Amino acid sequence: MKIESGTTRETLVRLGIVTLACLILCILFLRDGLVAWPRENAEYMGEKFPDPAKEPPSMNPSITEGLLDRIHKGDRLAKLEEELGEPSFNNDVEVFWVGKSGYIWAKLDRAGLVEQSTWEDAPHTRTDLQWQMIGAVITAVLTVIAGWLLIRAARTRVVLDDRGLVCNRGEPIEWNQMRLLDSSRYKRKGFVWLHYERGGQPGQQKLHSFHIARFKEIIGEICARKGFESPLEQPVKKKDAGDALQPPSA
């Protein structure tokens, strides 16, 4: 007698779907946070130039609203370029420094000095982009967890033979070591606890019907051999036709 079982197909399908869904979400978060939304912002900001850009303007990731404090009225453009780098647009009257989530705009007078400056958010703000990256990190972690559970489930191996029960290549639980089958949670939770004693030390092994493909065969054999009460539904015996026609005795 030997019964060998892996995990159920339903478990593999369910974990596979969860892993794939988390991976797809992670990719979408990364795409929006690193590529799609910054590109949409750049296209929007390019349209704000006095001469609308035909192509999305170059972006400097270091350009943020906080850099606006470095621009003062009367500053020369050369000084601003030292502070902010090369502008994305400059027609000697209006100057734009484009970042991922907005732009700094400065207006120059005839002497090339700053008259006024301001910051304008793009449609996808810095907070929006940060939330995309947070979502990417969370879904990446979930993908790793779900993938690990999928691999572990795929490697599930339960063997019942003349020696006893072996779960996932662990130490065998021999027949003479088995003491009790606790099936009190089987109907509600779908699992049983096999209690055993090895070397004078008690232990227990969880056997889950959702995770073991040949669960009923294994539990049925353990109960039959050890005399434990089976949690499985017993087939209803059909009455013999002759018995059904026989009138009850007085």
Structural description of this entry:
- By secondary structure, the protein is of the alpha+beta class.
- 38% of the residues lie in helices and 23% in strands.
- It has six helices and eleven strands.
- The protein has helices at 9-46, 77-84, 126-154, 186-189, 215-226, 241-245; strands at 2-5, 89-90, 94-98, 102-108, 114-121, 158-161, 164-167, 173-174, 178-182, 191-198, 201-208.
- The longest helix is centred in the N-terminal third of the chain and has 38 residues, at 9-46.
- The chain starts with a strand and ends in a 5-residue tail after the last helix.
Brief characterization of the structure:
The protein has 250 residues and is of the alpha+beta class. The chain has helices at residues 9-46, 77-84, 126-154, 186-189, 215-226, 241-245; strands at 2-5, 89-90, 94-98, 102-108, 114-121, 158-161, 164-167, 173-174, 178-182, 191-198, 201-208.
Strand content: 15-25%
Number of helices: 6
What would the average pLDDT be, to the nearest integer? 90
Please state the structural category: alpha+beta
The gross shape turns out to be rod-shaped
CA-based gyration radius: 35 Å
Name the helicity range.
25-40%
Oligomer: single chain
Q: What strand line-up does the widest sheet have? A: 1-6-7-8
Overall strand count: 11
How does the major sheet shape up?
Answer: 4 strands, antiparallel
